[in-house]
Amino acid sequence: MNDIQSKLPKVGTTIFTVMSKMASDFDAINLSQGFPDFPVSEKLIDLVYQNMQIGHNQYAPMPGLPKLREAIAKKVSNTGGVDLNIETEITVTAGATEAIFSSVLATVHSGDEVIVLEPAYDCYIPAIELAGGKPIPVSLNPENFTPDWEKVKNSITDKTRMLIINFPHNPSGAILRDDDIATLKEILEGNPKLIVLSDEVYEHIIFDKETHLSVLKDEFLASRSIAVSSFGKTFHATGWKIGYMVAPEAIMKEIRKVHQYNCFSVHTPSQYAMAEYLQDEKNYLGVSGMYEKKRNFFQQAIKDSKFKVIPSYGTYFQLLDFSEVTDMPDLEFAQYLIKEKGLASIPVSAFYSENQDHHLLRFCFAKGEETLQKAADILCKI
């Protein structure tokens, strides 16, 4: 049929899929798509298997297993967050993307405006558009990828319904500071209709003794925010597609109306496994140290290259400025690296709605040291 009118006419295949396919086609080292190349904890895998064997293979409750929601509430409390009602404020989701889609579809109405801080992960704007909303891109400061709060304030109108934030930030690794939290609270206090959707999937990957400042650590922010988390990111099991979201009861009630038809429930044995695995807080509090070593290894390995390292305070991504290497557009240079040098990355222009090009590439360092060293050797020879 040729008469189907696209609801997302500007959307094609994501840059992550495109660059990973190119990496496969040209047998390149893949530091593009954000997935680890090392194994998931054997204990966690055994827990999933054991629960399959026990017979936990049918539908879980729509909001998630009570014992997993209890474990999530305990984790939030352990990391300095607010006390949560497991019946009304936590929902287990099919990964963070489902949580984001369900949240936006439930709360954004036709004509509503949603401020998106760019560069931004590419699922935000399609979700807004599918909800009938209007995305309002606001660029982060290009020097350090911190929020330009004056720009945010100036972008708020009487139609603004939501502000989407993502820290630790993909692709830059930037984090929020205390003054950012104070300004965010000030903005919400002055705009009672505004809610925050906080994508916190890298909450347990933060470096240099910094602290992740979740919206759930402040009672007022928590009362006006939806926080999205990912077990896939925390436990390097991205293919399991399991995460959760936290929101005030009134907002969560609406989100669950969408979630129950968008997904209904999440893989049951994995929920049982996660509930038990979360009991040992070392399983999530120890993740940052492991990734910090990988970040340091990669940065040290490329220190003699012509690429400029942009500080990464969290996530498992490293931005490199290649302006001293070539004046090629970032997409063209990324394709050149794959085809001619055997190394895949992501051009950062893909994270902007207008494809702003600051001569930056994103590299994923969630890899073994041998892989990172091979990638660094390539970069140092360019």
TrEMBL record:
SUPFAM superfamilies: PLP-dependent transferases. Keywords: Aminotransferase, Pyridoxal phosphate, Transferase. One of its GO terms (molecular function) is kynurenine-oxoglutarate transaminase activity. Its cofactor is pyridoxal 5'-phosphate. Transmembrane segments: none annotated. Belongs to the class-I pyridoxal-phosphate-dependent aminotransferase family. This is Methionine aminotransferase. It comes from Marivirga arenosa.
